[in-house]
Design brief:
Oligomer: homotetramer
CATH class of the largest domain in chain A: Alpha Beta
Largest interface: A-B, 43 and 43 residues
Number of helices of chain A: 12
Structural class of chain A: alpha/beta
CATH architecture of the largest domain in chain A: 2-Layer Sandwich
Shape of chain A: globular
Number of strands of chain A: 14
Strand order of the largest sheet of chain A: 3-2-1-4-5-7-6
CATH topology of the largest domain in chain A: Dihydrodipicolinate Reductase, domain 2
CATH superfamily of the largest domain in chain A: Dihydrodipicolinate Reductase, domain 2
Chain lengths: 345, 345, 345, 345
Amino acid sequence: MEVAIIGGTGYGAVELLRFLHNHPHVQVKRIISHSNSGTALAGFYPHLTEVIDMEMSTLDTDRLAQEVELVFFATPSNVSKHHIPSLVDKGVRCIDLSGDFRLRDGEQYYSYYGEEIASADYIEKAVYGLAEINRSQIKDADILANPGCYPTATTLGLIPAMEKDLVDRSSIIIDAKTGVSGAGRGLSQNVHFSEMNENFRAYKIGEHKHIPEMEQTLTETANEPVQIVFTPHIVPMTRGIMSTIYVDLKDSYTTKYVVDMYQAYYQEDRFVRVRKEGVFPSTKEVYGSNYCDIGLYADERTGKLIIVSVIDNLVKGAAGQAIQNMNIMYGWEEKTGLDQLPIYP
Amino acid sequence: MEVAIIGGTGYGAVELLRFLHNHPHVQVKRIISHSNSGTALAGFYPHLTEVIDMEMSTLDTDRLAQEVELVFFATPSNVSKHHIPSLVDKGVRCIDLSGDFRLRDGEQYYSYYGEEIASADYIEKAVYGLAEINRSQIKDADILANPGCYPTATTLGLIPAMEKDLVDRSSIIIDAKTGVSGAGRGLSQNVHFSEMNENFRAYKIGEHKHIPEMEQTLTETANEPVQIVFTPHIVPMTRGIMSTIYVDLKDSYTTKYVVDMYQAYYQEDRFVRVRKEGVFPSTKEVYGSNYCDIGLYADERTGKLIIVSVIDNLVKGAAGQAIQNMNIMYGWEEKTGLDQLPIYP
Amino acid sequence: MEVAIIGGTGYGAVELLRFLHNHPHVQVKRIISHSNSGTALAGFYPHLTEVIDMEMSTLDTDRLAQEVELVFFATPSNVSKHHIPSLVDKGVRCIDLSGDFRLRDGEQYYSYYGEEIASADYIEKAVYGLAEINRSQIKDADILANPGCYPTATTLGLIPAMEKDLVDRSSIIIDAKTGVSGAGRGLSQNVHFSEMNENFRAYKIGEHKHIPEMEQTLTETANEPVQIVFTPHIVPMTRGIMSTIYVDLKDSYTTKYVVDMYQAYYQEDRFVRVRKEGVFPSTKEVYGSNYCDIGLYADERTGKLIIVSVIDNLVKGAAGQAIQNMNIMYGWEEKTGLDQLPIYP
Amino acid sequence: MEVAIIGGTGYGAVELLRFLHNHPHVQVKRIISHSNSGTALAGFYPHLTEVIDMEMSTLDTDRLAQEVELVFFATPSNVSKHHIPSLVDKGVRCIDLSGDFRLRDGEQYYSYYGEEIASADYIEKAVYGLAEINRSQIKDADILANPGCYPTATTLGLIPAMEKDLVDRSSIIIDAKTGVSGAGRGLSQNVHFSEMNENFRAYKIGEHKHIPEMEQTLTETANEPVQIVFTPHIVPMTRGIMSTIYVDLKDSYTTKYVVDMYQAYYQEDRFVRVRKEGVFPSTKEVYGSNYCDIGLYADERTGKLIIVSVIDNLVKGAAGQAIQNMNIMYGWEEKTGLDQLPIYP
């Protein structure tokens, strides 16, 4: 099958290439970068020298529709919404790594993304690609809204406890930490090496655009409105996200009870690994891989459940989950092309 | 004035030396390391070559009592309690950077430190050296229990809101992050470079020995029992602590209101800097210095107050605050020897 | 084909497992760790949870000979020499990632490794597995001495210039830099995070045991004795080696001439990529992959050729090259199991 | 004494402020930043909050001449040359941290700095401020050309051996490594955190503008033309430079002999510390301080002298040496304001 990647000079695109390189059913036909068309991708990413020998081109939806069956959008916010409708109309399925098709509520979209949401017909078509939770809908998606990095780690950590009604939905506090690659390849003082190295900072407190995305998912899970407190932080490392989640237990469950429940919940999910009692995953344990690893602690003293959920933000939080979704969409084994061990150390 | 430092090969001792080197009233007469007596300190710390030309010696309280007026203990847990009573009896004042004299409750001490607490008479004598809060008692202390690193960042961040009764004392959640030097100089797999670099991990969830220390301080502030949820994490950097604190506001205070109140509260405190609305400190902004910098966010959506408090764990969280306390104990200006800008970048 | 790995808790073994996991022809039957037999590997390496579900066992050469065709030794120095002879006698082929069978000269071995060399018969049998150079001999090797990390980067960088007689063999200076994982998983003050982070150091100047290994290879290439100056340094990062090599050009060759020659030399070698004029590889461009990337600069001002050669020390410098050698030994395509892109960023 | 700093938002300026904050004889009257005049410095550098409460202003040499005795230029290349002549004419002494007044040869300046050199009269007036070597001339300098970071580490490492005629001047190879702050505060892909972290790269091979600066100094030392091979590299850390220098010994000197000679040479120089035989300094051992630490190895096998010289690039390689030069120019003790221990760990 032939596919295209739009947003060719970003980290999302490069990570898609890394996994598609080992995917037996897919070939990348075209890499698109508006601002760098005509230049070789390996000029931007010398690690691809002699391996990915492609020039980037401009976006031409007609041509794309003839050439490929599937398009990945690894673009900034407010780009894919202008192109996906026309591609879908031409029969091309789209997987969107950006946030354009994740939210259903236009007002929220406007307030967090600063522009109008895509037109309602296409928003309705879009399926939210949290793979472990939405498999059945993903299968037939024409527009696949690939979840954000924080929402992936966080909602995979929270959903079992919420579905099984162990926790108070009004008490959710999420303290999240990301590696710097989450900020993308664009330059800014904040992620200048000399100022980010040996530094730890909080940012966008109370304002991050992943807040409505997580609330939307959790509200659907709970069948009633859920509000969260969410504070993202940036860690002096390149890859990895940890969500540390605090939520009130409704009853005096033991850690063992909660661990057993989570392990049962994710038993069939190859890419979610629930650690046993007393063990918590660190971000390096999923480095470069599509795993989401979860540790749990029921604090008897305070009645809180503490959930530690880690992913590689560029893999399970972006390109890896996109390929997992593609595999589901095309009926391939879910791990196809993704069956790599974390790189350690 | 002549002083001694016990625990000579640890990071606390070395950081004390760094600041005392620029202190006009104090000279380090003796550095004590039980296991390395007779060897030069610069052999362990080559950065001191040609500057600190001292051999370490064994601990002899009689000799110390003749030689020095003040002793700093920069020792592991359960060491200072065996020596401070006899030194104090001999008229030597002691500043203890370890946790031996911080807790008043023997049972809690036993449960978190694994041994019996020091004898009651001396525990009673001990003053908890949270400098900005306890100045008047610190002045006359013979045993100064220097606060732990997490408690310093956390309680300085929480106390104004609690004293002014803005927040619900039963709702405190503390998500804390430390640089690796907090783990000391002892070797362990967890802080082996290859496994800690590009890694972020939670540890001792619900079990850290700073929990009772913070609860003791906050209980005194609140005049009623306070329980906290506390999760420490370790960041791939050497220095710095951030405490991100979540607590319910009792009323709909604005961020501006809270910021103004905090700035007024710490107006006279040179080493606490409250950032203006919308600005949050990062750990690098206090690197190598004795500052505690605080940022505040009142989340109108959820009614939470989010407090971001940062220190250098080895300075305001250890050696710097110890010297600040010494300055108070001897009536010197509080900033003496500590008036250094953060090192940036 | 079934294989065993000896030295199960080291980084070499874990990296072998990562690549063998994707190797279509090989299955790891047994992982051996003398000191940890009976315990699960995933207890030491939680990133393997639910993927590599094996207990480690003791070394029993009789049992091994029945179970497997090939054994990888990822052991410290002076271990494999005690076991490889008996395995080979039993018909098991061995790939040794340690240095025990690399040197031919017993005196040199003794002087750099501190013990007697293996017995002469087996040293004679051993083939030095610098894959790009020795393919024809590797094919039939029963004892494959997998090259050291520094020698791999360095000799691949030097051999073309020496074979084509462009450079003065008496003028070789190698300034090498390694990531910290080269020091292995063993704890030491030097690689304690707090002291290695934000630090750069030289070590074992003039004394590193890779010196005789490089001299042996270069002497064979030159057909006359070659002596080198070699200074290794350690970089505050986990993976990657760069060898910066200085050597006198015999004539006034241009950079373009040298680049063309190198590109021709390595034309058939998938895992060596020679950068075009004016471009130099950085270590991250080979991160996690089996590539050796080379950049060249002919300094007209001084008549020096400067060669920059980078590898991932744990891959092309250890486990990756070992698998490449296995592929050659068994007649499989050289890239089998190794066809992964570098992980970037 | 009142001084001004020009180039207020760069790292050089901020580091000057850090040391001048503790200087008893100097007050910073004005901080100048062309592009940010009218804004508070602490807005750019929040670590200065409540400590350095100054707005930046435009450059007005008349006003400066009335206000201050001394001006520090911490500007990019090709700026100070336009302003220093007029300031000096008005009786203001200038210390220039940029390269504008370091080279004497206009052609070389043009070829490495891409513009015309300053006018000859002022170039002649300029004194090269390698403090340990040029004290007597520095004393009376009106224009002090503060040395570059690489030249400081390198020439302090080489000069004793060259002055004492131990080494062959035609054989000098310098393999240098710098922390990222050497690239300044300007943004670029190369020093974007995600791409510089866990990465090591060589850059500007054979083309760095510090080459003519070092050759000029070494030529003066040798009294005959000296050419060097110089390869700079960038290390994933913020601060620190190591120069590893290779040079042929003229005779079979032992390491001990060379160490003794160096220690004698720098006996009176507080800021140069020569390590004893077998010990080599790492960059962290001078972190944040004005020291230059040197280790030596005479390789009997190959007849090479290997010199390891480390500094903090922002201190001894920039702001610290500038203040040391100021102290010499005004007859103050050389360590005034600089007497701080390295920060470790």
